[in-house]
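Page 47, continued from p. 46.
Same chain as before, 153 aa.
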Amino acid sequence: MSLLSHISRQIRLSGPLSVAAFMREVIADPLHGYYPQAARIGHKGDFITAPELTPVFGEIIAAWSLLYWQQAKLSNHIHIAELGPGTGSLMRDIVDTIGIIGPAFFGKPPKLSASMVEISEQFIQEQEKLLCGANKKRSLLNKSLRTPIIYLE
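Result:
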């Protein structure tokens, strides 16, 4: 059954769909949705985002975050959450940059943890490969900072 047939059937059975319900179907439905059906990001993909072009975007976010943390006199524990992280490039750039410049802000390496909310199993596998290296299990440690990476689905 095609996505169009699937949505048409839902409308016939239950009546009109809200925009939220429609978007949930076309984006996340396990059989018909865009992301579960091998969406691609990057130069050869369906679209491209800033972190796929250059690490500068993540570096700027990391520097701003560290500056904010320091000015607000918060603890040196930083938790980062990313929704829809795609390939994980942005998270990698942020984590790597905090690892490099974080000690200058706090006088020691910050305690860093991260959560990523992802609905695509394909992207979760790409993120694990990029962020955790050979370690394929979820909720494990980033190779460079030993940062907990927690996946929420």
